[in-house]
Give the backbone structure.
Amino acid sequence: LKKFVVTLVLVGIFGFALLQLVHPSIPEAPARAEIAAPPEIRQILRKDCYSCHSDERRLSWFDQIEPAYWFVRKDVLTAREHLNFSTLGEKPAAAQKGILFEAVTMIQLGAMPLPQFTQLHPDAKVTPEEMATLKAYLAPWSVAPPLAVPGEAERAMPQTAGERTTLTSVADTLNGLKFDPEFENWKLIATTDRGDNSQFRLILGNDIAVKAAREGKIKPWPENARFAKVAWVKERGADGLDYAAKFKQVELMVKGAQEWKSTEGWRWGRWLGLDLKPYGKDKAVVKECTSCHLPLKGDDYVYTQPITAASVEGNEIVNNKAAALPAGLQDNPLDWHPIAVFADPKALTTSVLFANDPAFQASLAQSRTSGAVVSYPTGAKIALITWTQRDDPHWFGARVADSFTSAEFVEAGAGGAAPSYTRFDGPSGKPDPPNGQMQARRDFLLKLRPVALP
Ligand code: HEC
Ligand code: HEC
C-alpha cells in the first residue's frame, strides 16, 4: 500500500509539472492612452482593477500556477475586452467618465473587482476611503443642466400628426428585436433623475409587467414582461425646475427566460432620436446591455425598483415600497399615463404628471404637432404626483422617488366651466384645506408641456 501511495504522489507531482508546461501567454503592452483622470483616481484603479482591466501584467506568483492561471488568464482577457484602462483614453471625455460611473456602481453592488479575485487578493478590495475619493471626483450633481431656451421645446418636436403611424415601421435592432409601437401606452413602473448624464428616464411596463410589479412577483419577472425606458435630456427652466426636454432614446427589454437564455433571459434593444434609429454597429451590441446590467443578476438583471405597495421577499432593494401612493386617492394616477416629468433641484423632489385616457389622447395629438400647451377636453383629468428623492441604491449618480408628498388633481370643466383643482398631501393622503394658491397651482398643471415623443 505504501508503494502505491508513493506512486500516486509521484504521478501527481509529474502531472502537476506537466500542467505548468501548458502556459498560454497573456499579452502585455505599455499603456497607449490611459484613462484621463487625476493621479489619485488612477492610483485606485491601478491597485484594484489593473490586474484585469489593463495591458499591464500584474499577477501574483500564485496566479501563475496552473490550473489557477488558466482561469485568471480567461478573466484577464475577458475583462480587457470589456474595459481596458490602458486604452480608454482614446474615447471621448464623457465616455471615460461614464465608465467611471459604471465602475462605482459595479463596486457598490459587489460585482467588481470579481469576488473570487478579492478572496485571494484582499488588497485589491476597494476601501471606503477609495470609494469616497471616486465619488467626490465624479460629483454627479455638481453640474447644473443647461438653461432652457424659450421655444426650444417646440423645435425639438418636428413631427407632424401624420408621422405618428411611422412607429409601426421602425427598423428592428441588428440582433432582430422588433420595435414595440405600443410602448407609449404602457404604464409607469418608476422614474429616475440622473445627475451623471443630466437626463430623466421614465420606465414603463406593459400590462404583464405592471401586474407583476403590483403583486410583487418580480423575482423573476414573468414571461413577456416588457419594459420601455424612455430618456430625455434635462433643461433648467426660468422657474428653477429641471424639465425633460430633448428626446434622447427609447430602450426595450422583453422577457423570455428560455428563449433568450444566452442574453440573460431578456431581449434588448435601443433606438436613438425621434427617428428611432436602431443603436449599434453589429449584433454584439447586446453585450453592452448585459454587461452593465450584470450586477443586478440577483434581481433578474433589472435595475428599476418598481413603485409598488407590494413587498418582494421583504427586499427593499428590489421594489420601492416607500414611494407607493396612499390608498384613498380619488383616482389612481398609476393607472393613467405619465406625460411629463420634472425635478426641483432645491427641494429635491421629482414630480410626474399623469393623464387619464381622454387627457392622454389630447396630449399625444396636440403635443406631437405643436409642442404647445395642451387644451384638455371634457372628461380629461390630470394628476401631478410629487415624491421626495433619495439616492438610487442601484446606480451612483441617479436619484429615485422616495416618499410620496402630494397629489394634485385637475379635472377639465364641462361646457366651458373652469377646471377644478384638488390636492392631497402625504404621507396620510388627507385632503388639503383650500388655500389661495389653488388657482396658481391649477394653472401650473395645465401649462405643463407633455414630454417629446417620437
Ligand atoms: C479578476 C479580474 C477583474 C478585476 C480585478 C476587475 N474586473 Fe472588472 N471585469 C472583469 C471581467 C471578467 C468582466 C466581464 C464581465 C462580463 O460581463 O462577463 C469585467 C467587467 C467590468 C465592467 C463592465 C464593463 C462593460 O462591459 O460594460 C466594469 C465597469 C468593470 N469590470 C469595472 C471594474 C473595476 C472598477 C475594477 C476595480 C475596482 C474591476 N473591474 C476589477 C474582471 C475583473
Ligand atoms: C452603463 C450601464 C448601462 C448600459 C450599458 C445599459 N443599461 Fe439599461 N439601465 C441602466 C440603469 C442604471 C438603469 C436604471 C434606470 C436608469 O436610471 O437609467 C437601466 C434600466 C434599463 C431598462 C429599464 C428596466 C431595468 O432594467 O431597470 C431597460 C429597458 C434598459 N435599461 C435597457 C437597456 C438596453 C436595451 C441596453 C443596451 C442597448 C442597456 N439597457 C444598456 C444601465 C445600463
The pocket of heme C (ligand 1) is lined by residues 48-49, 51-53, 75, 78-79, 82-83, 102-103, 106-107, 112-114, 117, 124, 126, 291-292, 294 (CB under 6 Å). Confidence is low (pLDDT under 50) at residues 153-165. Residues 338 and 354 are 4 Å apart (CA to CA). The radius of gyration is 26 Å.
